[in-house]
Amino acid sequence: GLAKLNRAGAPVPEWFGVPTEFFSAHVSKSSISGVLSTTLSELSELDLNEPASLKVVQAGAQKIKDAIIAEEPPPELRVAIEADLPKLGDGPFAVRSSMVGEDSKEHSFAGQLDSFLFQTGVDEVVDSIKRCWASAFGDRSIAYHLRANLPLDAIRVGVVTQRMIDGEVSGVMFTANPTNGHREQTLLTAAWGQGEGIVSGICNTDEIVWGHHGEEVSYRIVDKDLKLIRDPDSGRGTIEVDVVQDERKVRCLDESTVDLICAKGLEVANNFGSFQDIEWTVEKGKLYF
Fold first, then answer.
1. How many Cα neighbours within 13 Å face the side chain of 144?
2. Rounded to the nearest 5°, which phi and psi values hold at 229?
3. What percent of the chain has pLDDT above 90?
4. What's the distance, CA 60 to chain centroid?
5. For 256, which DSSP code?
6. Is 192 in a helix, a strand, or coil?
7. pLDDT at 151
8. Parallel, antiparallel, or unpaired: how do β-strands 277-283 and 286-288 relate?
9. What is the rounded distance in angstroms from the CA atom of residue 129 to the CA atom of residue 126?
10. Closest Cα to residue 162, out of 107, 116, 201?
């Protein structure tokens, strides 16, 4: 998805992908593969309609995740990260999990895997990659696989490492309006802070409708009482904070910024040849998809 956005000329922060071969090499180690095969075999026999089954899934998932995190990653991974991380700048970095097959036409693993924001240095990035791998075997992911009749032994995870953007306002854009089916309208949602607050549902969002003729059709302001920001104490990860009173019930996007985001989104959708839903953020007046 990011590669397609790059080719479409979208404003994407610098990134590189960690191929699934590293994941496969890690989980094939004997200390992990034994736990993996035994536990997944037991879980595949479960009937998820039985209430007790979910507790068994939770316990099995934790056992697998603990095994993956406890083992040192392949040494080649550190070599690759040491070589490629400086190409993204000084940091911080976002380490983002991506299940192979995620958001395909048939299946979506959105929200089931972990990502790690505002990571600094090689050690933190390598550890976060390993934790991304482990999250593929979380209880929600395993339960989804079982309900969808997807093979548990075919799980593969790629990881994106990307320059972290400290967004002041973020949101999601749909280049066709999903609320009314209008294909000549873009629906934009926006709130203060990091995009994680929007996609996780923590933050209330303003809702803007923008016509493809190039003008804002409507802007609905909500009470934006919470936002997610970079943890000011550790500098790593995010925390939830209250929005100051003066910013709660006002627009978080001016009209020119709405035009900029929506016009660029429409350009990307036209390049793709299909309607898109796009996560975006703005840092110091600069737009990123």
1. 18
2. -135, 165
3. 79
4. 25
5. H
6. strand
7. 81
8. antiparallel
9. 5
10. 116
CA distances from 128 to 78, 120, 169, 210 (A): 12, 10, 25, 38
CB 87 within 8 A of CB 14: yes
Alpha helices in the chain, H assignment, sequence order: 2-7, 20-27, 30-43, 51-70, 75-84, 121-135, 139-147, 196-199, 245-248, 255-272
Quote the pLDDT of residue 48. 85
pLDDT value of position 99 = 79
pLDDT for residue 50: 87
Residue 185, strand partner residues: 211
Q: Which of 203, 202, 170 is nearest to 188 (CA)?
A: 170
Per the document, the length of the chain is 289
List of the chain residues with pLDDT < 50: none
Distance of CA 193 to CAs 28, 58, 117, 190, 198, Å?
40, 32, 13, 9, 9
Residue 244, token pair as written in the block: 């100051």
Cα separation, 35 vs 65, in Å, equals 10
Residue 248, class by beta-carbon neighbours within 10 Å (0-12 exposed, 13-18 middle, 19+ buried)? middle
Instruction: Check residue 106 and give its pLDDT.
Output: 62
Angle at 106 between CA 103 and CA 111, to 5 degrees: 35
Amino acid at 179: T
pLDDT tens, residue by residue, 42-73: 988 888 888 889 899 999 999 999 999 999 99
Give the span between the Cα atoms of 133 and 155, in whole angstroms. Answer: 10
Smallest CA-to-CA distance from 160 within 59, 45, 261, 13 is with 13
Backbone angles phi, psi at 227, to 5 degrees: -150, 160
pLDDT at 183: 96
**What tokens does 47 get?**
């009937």
CA distances from 47 to 55, 137, 146, 252 (A): 12, 18, 9, 47
Global pTM reads 0.88
pLDDT at 229: 96
